[in-house]
Design brief:
mainly alpha
Chain lengths: 206, 206, 206, 206, 206, 206
């Protein structure tokens, strides 16, 4: 691992600051917010900066992660890798460094594919994905950049690739949620943790 | 009042549907979701369609309104009318009929001004607002349409008009939240309730 | 009525100026220009600011209103409400406050519909209009924002909805004329009269 | 001369049609419209196609040319060559072949410069014009493509180059009028007369 | 001829400079670069400014013209006039004065048509060209302005007009090469030689 | 290493094709082209697909790489890492997967920084680079996406950060060359070699 995640947690602004706003100290956070952050650290080995940056406002933090989990952790017609593809493609269009780097890492892991995230971030039309997922990303990108022009024909195109209307809601809602997330990350100048860059790129050693 | 809100609640799709998705029946909703909807109806005299449309997914409904309230109902450096101005201006840029019409109504009421909402929706640069609020909307619009290009100079411009960095977060977070909201409304083809169009336009009779 | 239209005529700049340019005094205008303005006042109960702002240049005033009447008052395949829809939709795209507010009022009256104008101004694709009028506005918007790309297929699409080529000329000419009008209103910072905002929203009392 | 203008007048659609609409026959036009066309022919040696194309609708024809003359033939702070520069630059931005070719010819003649029109049509920032005229075209282009964003600072920039506010009106009104004209020419697929291409390029022989 | 080309060669910056960078003196250039320039002068009667401007960097000069000749002088499915059309249309979209003026001249000569270049530069959709060449320019323009969105359907459209895939490469490569060339000309503020403006416009006298 | 580069060379289209066009066989290439490709293979351990894809046209291949080397391998005011930053940032703007992935790898190696390339590809404004390099990339991006609007002030901004006008040429020429390169890669659907994705991310073991 490139950095020591424990020191990253305790000294988040040691080198480059993680945000335009001061990162709160864990011990000053409300109990539920701190617990959530520690649980993520337990699972990931480090605290993603989005947690610390948004914890500056605990109420918004709670709503943000409740929304995130409702969309990204649920069961449904989309695989978890497909959900991450939507995040990476639309965050690329919004030029959000944090979300492309962090969710690129998660996409590599969920898809068990070390190449896919970079392809989707730059130009999903050229990525190694089947037509079904190209249609999914066409729809997600229209939600991200031209939602005013969405029309019945766009949902029809999804149906032709086997997506239900509930799947369409999932795709749209993920693109919409990261429209919010990308803007907050760009506003706060949220810095991706160094750990994300390499995650999922190197096959685990036996 | 132009329509009978009670029948609107019970028969939301009588004439034009309120969404591309079927509106749930109140009695089928989880207790907390139904309670919130009934509380809004009690206060407003009708159920805004956004409540019924999003109740299709109770978990997302809860997160959406928790986020909404954290940003729009809180105390802070921005007045409630200013918050609504941000919603109306950015929703106009995103061509979101529901949010322009519904929050236009709320803006008229909060600002006690029957003209302001239409001005802000079409072109806030020509609206009857002081330079401080023009600066606020310049910043909000950059969050809405070009957040990748936000830089320190944009925050500096806010500070010159007396905004604190916490105010900047409020402005950015409201613009970001309605980036989500506008996309969901455009995706679902969410229909503004007829009641909104006239609210706040006619002075109350003595 | 929210303001006294007579005083609005005599003191157009009492509160906010109606234009970046000084409004001329009625008694200093050429006879034909004054007569036209008084006729409008007689009919509407107030003088729309566009008349006073453009009367600054009588020759341009005469050509402007001659063109306007040739397009908006004529008989033909388009109803008067349809003509106003074209004005409201394209003026929304051009972010022209004066034309959206003033012609929004006229649209409400001509269509006898208190809701339609706000819908068309924000996003005509979601307005309560039949496919024929969506096709009409698709064409008008292409004239307004991408006329260089107009091609035979665009006229063919109109014909499929029953429009003749003379109707196509009407649609294009109205969109083109308000391309001019929107730019003059934006240049002069033309202020919509307060009277327009409420016109056509409240059913007449018996 | 490349073509025989008399036959061009009598047989306007001999080779390529001059418009998507049938050109009217001179003898069927109202007397005043025909007289104006014949006067132009007398002066120019041929009938510009814009006359025949717009004569399809005599009332609009009259308003169009009354407006045109009020802006292009008047005395004032702008030279006639400067007025034509505004036409050529904004028509280039709108990709209007007719106006670039026809007014390019007039610009060459009015400016007594065989090179200027092509420079202004492609990229006025690189044209051989002094800073005053660059400022004029900066303003005209903002009227043409982003009039919603015009602000006091834009007029102030003109004043710094010696333009009065009446000059600003002239610049804006010409850009606005050709916003109309470009859209009508693009809609009708108006064809520039062959004569225009060479006019003003070759010095008159002694 | 409007200017004396010999003096243009020896005193390229006599009146207006031909570039933001100093033009090298012929006698200081490497032998092969000088030989190429003299050969062009021999053939054309003057030295196109692009030669002098790029000779500032001999290595880049050599690669530029090797690439240029590989694309523009080769045999193949496209006529030389068609190649120049691609240059003129895409250079117009990139607002490159040098390439529009210089290659406009070459297009007039190669197509033996005094009108075509101006038509293609402003709006190729309205130019006097058959559907095959419209399809060619549709493809070239997509390469020029939205190459990320190219897809199999775009090549399929070319094939329907009889273009082979090798022709598609030619079209794409010419549009790509002039993407480079336009940017260098815009960066250096490269000035078109006066000679180009009139070339190919006047039929040769017998 | 994720794949066996030797088999990649011999069987470039085993899994996904490296281009829309057939890759030539090494033994069929002209001697100088083959020699260059083998030299790259010797140095890198694999053959970058750009070599094989462009070798389809040997003359263009030679010009392309001569130009490339003249810009990327030369001495001068810019470091080699800075040159690669320009490539990565502008290729990101052009959504060119091949150039972002391949030159991202080279940037990591030249800058000895495993994080920089991903930052620059998504949004260079947020990358860990000093103001001098932000100014360099501001200029490069203007060359890439709006070269028509370049003006003296843009060069002045570079000078304020210590860049000479020769450095400005380097920056502009690299951005211009990759405008060409990105379009060819997007046209051919050029596939980045698997090897690039991981290069420069993992510190060498002692």
């Amino acid at each position: 691992m490139l950095t020591d995640s424990r020191s990253a947690l305790e000294c988040p602004a040691m080198s480059s600051p993680i945000s335009r706003f001061p990162a709160p100290r864990l011990e000053n956070l409300p109990e539920d917010v701190r617990a959530r952050i520690l649980a993520v650290q337990e699972k990931s080995g480090f605290v993603p900066n989005v947690c610390l940056v948004l914890a500056h406002r605990p109420e918004e933090f709670r709503a943000f992660f409740a929304y995130h989990d409702a969309l990204m952790e649920k069961e449904g017609g989309l695989t978890k890798a497909e959900r991450e593809m939507i995040v990476v493609a639309t965050s690329g269009a919004n030029q959000c460094s944090y979300c492309v780097v962090a969710h690129g890492a998660i996409l590599r892991i969920r898809a068990k594919d070390p190449l896919l995230a970079d392809q989707v971030a730059v130009n999903y039309r050229k990525a190694d994905i089947p037509p079904r997922e190209k249609a999914m990303l066409d729809f997600a990108m229209k939600v991200a950049v031209a939602s005013h022009a969405l029309e019945d024909a766009d949902l029809e195109a999804l149906r032709r690739h086997g997506f239900t209307d509930e799947d369409a809601w999932d795709i749209a809602a993920i693109a919409a949620f990261f429209a919010l997330s990308n803007r907050m990350a760009n506003f706060t100048a949220m810095r991706p943790n160094d750990e994300f860059y390499l995650m999922g790129r190197v096959p685990k050693q036996p």
